[in-house]
Amino acid sequence: MLPRGTAVRRDSGLYGYERALARCGLTPVAGADEAGRGACAGPLVAAAVILPEGKRGEVPGLADSKLLRPAVRERVYDQVMRRAAAVGVVVVPPAEIDRVGLHRCNVAALRRALAKLTLPAGYVLTDGFPVAGLGVPGLAVWKGDRVAACIAAASVVAKVTRDRMMLELHAEYPQYGFDEHKGYCTAEHTAALNAHGPCAHHRFSYVNVRAAAGLRVPAGSVEENALDVGEEEY
Prior knowledge:
- By secondary structure, the chain is an alpha/beta fold.
- Strands 3-2-1-4-5 form a five-stranded mixed beta sheet.
- Helix 2 packs across helix 5 (about 150-170).
- The longest helix is centred in the C-terminal third of the chain and has 24 residues, at about 150-170.
- The protein has helices spanning about 15-25, 70-85, 95-100, 100-115, 150-170, 180, 185-195, 205-210, and strands at about 30-35, 45-50, 85-90, 125, 140.
- It has two domains: about 15-165, Nucleotidyltransferase, domain 5; about 170-230, no CATH class.
- The protein starts with 15 loop residues before the first helix and ends in a 22-residue tail after the last helix.
- The chain is about 35% helix and about 15% strand.
C-alpha cells in the first residue's frame, strides 16, 4: 500500500508515483517489469531500474516499451542506461520456465532483478504482480509501465535486452522468424513451428509447442502458454 494520506492523481503524469513517494521520504523508488511472459520461445527477461530524482531522472521519450517503435525504444534504452542510478537484469532460460513454471519464474525473476540493484531501494513498484520478501514496502501497479516512470524504464530495459537476444537466435534459427515476432505465438510463428518442429529454445511446457513436437498434451489443459498473443504484446 502507499503510505497513509498519500494519493496519486490520475493526471499527475508518468513521474507522479515517484514524486508522491519522495514527499513521504520513501526513496529511492525502484521499478520492476518483465518481457517475454507471453512468448512460447526464448527467455523471460526481468529488469529493475532506479531513476535518480530531479531532471536527470526524467528520460526523454520514456513510455511503456510496447508503445514505442523499435528505433525509439533503442534510443530510450540508451538514455535509461545512461541516467539510471541502478539497473538489474535477470534472464530466465526456457528450460527453467519448463521446470519451474511460468508464473513462479516471473515473480522470482522480478525479485532477483531487484536484488541485483547496487543501490538499495526504499520502495518498490512492480508491474501487475506483487513480489513478496523484498524487505522494503512495495506496490503492484496495474498497467504500471504506463503510469510509473521507473516501471516504464524497467519495461524498456527488459524488452530491448530480450529483443536483442531474439535477434541472435534468429541468426541461428532463421526458419522461425524470431526477428519479426520475437518468439510470440503469431500466425507466422505457429506455421513455422508446425512446419519445422520446435528448437531447443522453445518452451516445451507450452501446449502449442508440445503439439508441434508430437508430445502428449495433458487432458483438460488450459495453460495460458497456449494462448495466441497479439502484436501489442511484443
